[in-house]
User: Fold this.
Amino acid sequence: MRRSASLQTLLFYGLSGPMIALNVWLLSVLFNYFKHPITILSVAAILAFLLNYPVKFFERARVTRTQAVIIVLLVTLTLVVILGVTLVPIVIDQTIQLLNKIPDWLTTSQANLEQLEAFAQRRRLPLDLRVLSEQINASIQNILQQLASSAVGVAGTLLSGLLNLMLVVVLAFYMLLYGDRVWYGLINLLPSHIGVPLTVSLQLNFQRFFLSQLLLGLFMVVALTPIFIGMKVPFALLFAILIGLSELIPFIGATIGIGLVTVLVMLQNGWLGVQVATTAIFMQQIKDNLLAPKLLGNFIGLNPIWIFISILMGFEIAGLLGTLVAVPIAGTIKGTFDAIKSNKGSNFVSTVTIPHNPPEKDRN
Assistant:
């Protein structure tokens, strides 16, 4: 009996690895085949998750759900238009200027490295930076060439982006109105001890995760922009927005954003790059130790190693979109299994207790 049980265990763990790898490969193939519709649906679902908070706020003020959805979407579109008229042109202009400045910065950085290497040779220090300099210059020039080649189809890209934006807004509108009915229709196909915790875990992880990440990214942009301007960092707004957007990628996004901005600034001024890195890391520590625990808490409850693995798998399956949704999906799966194991079904998800409110049967 013991041998039979151990053999079954060995077969289970031995086959689970290949099965997981096969499923990941199949998901990657399916995503590549249906990439555009899946991306549109995913972005619309995330937008609907986020906008559901203000919709519920208006519903508490005795406004019908349809009216609340229309009000929230109109306000959101108004804010997007205001940002598109004021902020976006500045960011585009700074991006163009940055691309034009990078060749000059590469020349300056080359001269600075040569001076540093000459200083090291006078002190008889074994320092050879030529290989490193050539690799950095080749990498940056390669990126610039790719950006220049992709800039040819800017008009078509903008038109396609506008059409996709319209599709996202329309889908988000209908998801806010009828998404809960569709979801609960699918969930009713599952046993209640699985469907209920899955629903609550999904709401908790996606709504709270993306709202928190957006607020944390906004904090970095608002905090770093005046600091960079005071430090006379070139393209201060663009660099602050780049660091803020990188916050949307959990676990490793902030490091990538700060590292990229630091390298770009150091091409022009090495000491200024060190100051930028120090300031950004300091603000990141404030965000991680003071703001993030209050916003995120411990609702995912995942080990950092599993978070990193889920991000890598998400990137392999769906690229940037997979990277963004990997952590909340992993948190949803873990929260659902935690609830099933604890036999608390409707009111236990991961490490947070929240009430479960089924949708109203009739909504205007």
